[in-house]
């Protein structure tokens, strides 16, 4: 990441990550507090060894923005929009529309770069029904995730873990902590629904596969 991107990524993590659940037109996004840390927080979240400890580790890719995300196990094939920061320093979420799309947080590493690349999506989109990440919690270890990049390459990831956590106990260090290999975080809402809000967050941790170019 560039120095500006690193600062913006850190700013967002020090504020909060907003993951809109799309329960209704007037719904406010649900907040999940996050704290930027340095070290191996992300590696702890993924439950896998770091790149430096495995002879089979995938080689990191250069920076190239993602344009599409495919998750065959849950029939997801979505364009990726770019998300930035709101005026209050929180992360933008994709708009609630009939043609729901996931969004890549543009101040995080691009998929395939060293570090945790962050993608957000809705679980429901109000009157339009299911969101693009409606079935995210069904993913299992080893499931394939493909991020097509602007340079024509595809970063292929394997799910390492799927966690459903209370928003009040959002694992900031695990999600945003520095890691020494390319990783991916997919985030949406989940768990019991209370009015227009969901109680939990669903977080998918994934690591770059050696099969990536």
What's the helix and strand layout?
Elements (H helix, E strand, L loop, with lengths): L2 H12 L1 E4 L10 E4 L7 H6 L19 E6 L4 E8 L18 E4 L9 E6 L23 E6 L4 E13 L5 H5 L5 E13 L2 E12 L5
Parallel strand pairs: 4-5, 6-9
Antiparallel strand pairs: 1-2, 3-4, 3-7, 5-6, 7-8, 8-10, 9-10
Account of the 3D structure:
By secondary structure, this protein is mainly beta. The chain has a single domain (3-48, 61-208), classed as Sortase (Sortase, Chain: A). The protein has helices spanning 3-14, 41-46, 172-176, and strands at 16-19, 30-33, 66-71, 76-83, 102-105, 115-120, 144-149, 154-166, 182-194, 197-208. The strands form two sheets. An eight-stranded mixed barrel has the order 3-4-5-6-9-10-8-7. The longest helix has 12 residues, at 3-14. It is globular, with a radius of gyration of 16 Å. It starts with a helix and ends in a 5-residue tail after the last strand.
Which features does this protein show?
mainly beta; Sortase, Chain: A; 8-stranded mixed beta barrel; two-stranded antiparallel ribbon
What's a concise summary of this model?
This protein is mostly beta strands and 213 residues long. It has helices spanning 3-14, 41-46, 172-176, and strands at 16-19, 30-33, 66-71, 76-83, 102-105, 115-120, 144-149, 154-166, 182-194, 197-208. The chain has one domain: Sortase (Sortase, Chain: A).
């Amino acid at each position: 990441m560039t120095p500006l991107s690193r600062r913006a990524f850190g700013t967002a993590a020090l504020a909060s990550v907003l993951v809109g659940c799309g329960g209704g037109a007037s719904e406010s996004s649900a907040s999940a507090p996050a704290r930027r840390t340095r070290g191996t927080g992300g590696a702890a979240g993924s439950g896998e060894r770091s790149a430096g400890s495995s002879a089979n580790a995938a080689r990191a890719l250069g920076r190239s923005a993602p344009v599409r995300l495919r998750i065959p196990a849950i029939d997801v094939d979505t364009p990726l929009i770019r998300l930035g920061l709101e005026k209050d320093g929180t992360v933008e979420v994709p708009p609630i529309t009939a043609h729901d799309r996931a969004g890549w947080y543009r101040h995080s590493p691009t998929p395939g770069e060293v570090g945790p690349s962050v993608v957000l999506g809705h679980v429901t989109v109000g009157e339009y029904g299911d969101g693009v990440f409606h079935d995210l919690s069904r993913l299992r270890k080893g499931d394939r995730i493909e991020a097509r990049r602007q340079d024509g390459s595809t970063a292929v990831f394997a799910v390492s873990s799927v966690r459903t956590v209370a928003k009040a106990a959002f694992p900031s260090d695990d999600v945003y902590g520095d890691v020494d290999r390319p990783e991916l975080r997919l985030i949406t809402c989940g768990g019991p629904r209370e009015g227009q809000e969901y109680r939990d967050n669903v977080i998918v941790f994934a690591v770059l596969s050696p099969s990536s170019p």
